[in-house]
Every structure is written in structure tokens, then in C-alpha cells.
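Protein of interest.
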Amino acid sequence: MRIGDIEGTPEEIKDLVDNQGLDIGKYLKATPSISNKRNHNIGLFISIAIFLILNICVWTINFSDTYEKIAIVILLALICFITILIHQRHENFMISGLVILFSIVIMSVCLDFITPKDALEKIDKENPLNNKITE
């Protein structure tokens, strides 16, 4: 068994930690878990719903430039908030990166920055799961 720089059996590691008076939690830098998962999930669901509704409104309703700029700022803030909530839940940078990528692509399509066809090509090109190593 290996924990950080320490290697040995679980009993040896426990004895080492106990004999040295160490706090294994501080050594491992354990992150605290989410204290209230229900509220966390509700906040995540509401944020995603607002993000999708605002994107649909921007896509279907012809806003003036001022309202479109306000919508872009709100959408970017929602992307940040959603990414933070998802990263707190899963603690995985790959998942967080994919959330950012897909959210920005959805927002770009709804704001007519890119077409849906270009978006699919961009996702296919940028997707880290499709990286193929040729030898």
C-alpha cells in the first residue's frame, strides 16, 4: 500500500502515523465532502435550467444589443457557477473541462456565433476522449 511518499502495509503506516503523532488527514490533504447534497443538487438543477431557458430565449427572441450583452454576462456567470458545482461534486478536471466546453458551444450556437454543424465539428475536434495515439 502506498500513501503519498509512505509505502508499507496498512498496519505499518498506521503505526508510523500513531508513533509520530501525525494527523493523516492533514498529510493527505483530504477535501471536505459536500455537507448538504440535496441543496447542492437543487442549486445545480436550477442553474442548469436557468442556463438552458436563457439560451432558448436568446436563440428565439430578437434582443437589442444591450440585452444580448447582459445575457452573455449572465450566461458566462452561470457557466462558472455550474462548473464549480460540478467540480465540487466530482472533483475531476476532465468532467469540469467538458462542462465548460459543451456550455460554451451551446451558448455560441444560441447567440449565432457558430452554426450547429460547426459546433459538432468543433466538439469532435476538441473532445479529449477522441484523442487517438498512433504508433
